[in-house]
Amino acid sequence: MKNKLARLLILVTTAIWAPGIYNSLYAQPSANTSSPYSRFGVGELQYNSQPRFMGMGGVAMGVNDSTYINFENPASYTAVGRYTLFDFGGRASFTRLNTATKQADANSINFSHLFVSFPIINRKWAMNVGVIPYSNEGYNFTQTTPLPSYNDIQVNYQGSGGLTSVVWGNGVTIFRSLKNRSKTVNPDTVKNSAMRKIMRDTMPETSRLSLGANISYLFGNLNSQSSAIFPDTTIAYNTRQIRSVRVDGISTQLGLQYTKRFKRDRVLTLGLSYTLGLNQSAKENLFIASYVNTGESDFYLDTLVNKENSKGKIQLPSSVGAGFTFRQGNTWMVGADFKTTDWSNYRYFGSADDKLANSYQASVGAQYTPDYTPKKLSLRRTAYRIGARYGRSYLNLNNTPINEWGVSAGIGLLLNPSGYYQRIFKAPFSSMNISAEYGQRGTTTNNLIREDFVRLSLAFTFSDKWFNKYKYD
Asked: How much is the pTM?
């Protein structure tokens, strides 16, 4: 009983403090992102692939694994089995911003996710709760444009904030076909109900169809400021616009997975997901005024607009994703994903944004584990992953689509419980996943910016038996 209480206190304390750590990391613009592209829409959408899937290029729609939480497709939650999984991690990004004539570096370290997934009815119903960033704003740059009458005008753009998603997910098994259901092994012929249940739970599957849903509460603040400055004249007044938007709303994602087992322990899993486009409630504060700089501070002259708590809606787009994996037991796996999002339906307080365009991403990846069975930590028990992705982002600037690609690699270390950890957690399996990705986004043509980035991702998955009745404690 003491061990159970200790485990519960440790995990609950971590769950309570993790959002606080997340908020502290995101308190400053430089802590989340420094991308000028985060100025558009609701900020830079986070590439939220967990390290296990990031190492495979983001392939996740068709992944069905009892040792990992797959947030990308809620139908996969039914694979959790008898154990409760606790998954959390972080990410570091190193970015070089390139224009046709200049370069600048920007780095960030972020909290990436926190999930707890557990079975309600073994192999039939599982639940997942957690928190994950949805988008980030973080930029500070100046554009200079020549004007015939006033020489130059400098416009400084600043932004901070972002949206966070609190997730409640459920996955249920629609049907499950068992292997070798002859008269001698058919669990339906067993009179003892306890034995019949054990046989059904342990008998190998030939197929399974699962349905899932993620209900997410989106919230956060988007803060932006732009200042138009005339440095070479005293005739024109400078102008500043300060905007703050509070967003609160619900997002829904549906998922479907079908798993088919063939001979020699080969398994094909097909996955499909659909995210509904929904209106998010928003409140906007907008302040626009002319001002002059006195050398020590700014002095506001005329207030042009001053609106507080203006209510409206932000319409987020729908998206569709599909993918598959094909694996040989726990030895090797290959897969591919494709996802598209309809950003033409995005609306901000009823207005469309001509800088946003429909986006897509295609991913391919593979995983290989030399030997899954050894009990000791070894390189042969390590999962090795590679992957690649290519897509078009949701931005179209200066009549130029902003494309993005990345190549990735990663490892998954299966950890055996030992020492103090074994005494406290008694976990049957746990893992540490490390992934790295190199990629590019954008271009230097048409006065745009190219971002060369390296992302490093680290996550831990712990397992334990919760919500089980024990005869002895």
From this structure: 0.82
